[in-house]
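Possible regression after last week's pipeline update?

I re-ran a chain I had predicted before the update to compare outputs. Posting the input and the new output here so someone can diff against the archived version. Not blocking, just want to make sure nothing changed silently.
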Amino acid sequence: MQAFIDVLLPISIGVIMFGIGTGLSISDFKRVFIRPKEVTFGLIGQLLLLPLVGFLIAIIFPLDPVHQLGVILIAACPGGTSSNLVSYMLKGKVSLSVSITAFNSFLVVFTIPIILELAFIFFWDEPREVQMSMYDTFSEIIFTVLLPVMGGVALRHYMPKTASSLKKPLRWVLPLILFTVFLLILINNRESDNVSLLDYWYLLFPALFLNVFVMFVGFYLSGAIGIKHRGKYTIAIEMGLQNSALAIYLANMLQIDGLELIAVLYGSFSFFTTFIIAWFMKNYMKKKSI
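New output (post-update):
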């Protein structure tokens, strides 16, 4: 099944990003870069504030060293396609979401090794060297995010009626694709690992705290610097929904027993909690926010 998932996952991500692209135009991205404050703050939130919160959680919660590393690991992996999809479903600033994803996918090649090496210094008894392939990361983001989104934008530009007819069904089809792939990955993980996640239920608390707390940090801090409501809850989504698939991959690469547990638990609920909290922010926190 793993070989099947290795092929299915990038294809599914590409299809999702193409669908998201059909709702965007070139002018949407122009507006993002004419006023780059939102993108800049989103990247700072994901690549700096999130890891800092991760270190704080690892210190405050009574966790074993391997699980402290697990918290840092998930905090170091900024959101990808899932956060783009949540922004799309909630009619957030999708062009902002996609732009942040594109930039952070390039930057994590440098930030993740630094963050994880610091985590090993603080929480582990021996240092580890962490490396990520720049070529693999760049090619993945180009073929699964940038090109599919550009294809969707082109479809809307040259065939607007077709793109418009796809709008309503895509709001159901795209989440269904993501859920199907996630279910297959979860089944595959359970088949390949005899560890019961129920035995580690207490790890849900630091994982949930990371997910929820950083969303409110992103929402209120972005408001404090003058970002408008739609951008605020989009940034909250970007900060709240981490790339658990990347974290699981890195945990397996590091070959430390139990390192992937936080990421697996986080991935099992974070899409739903992020959606619910962002929906609440969108509909009930507009007037009360800063």
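Follow-up from reviewer: compared with the archived run. Residues 29 and 95 are 6 Å apart (CA to CA). Marking as no regression found.
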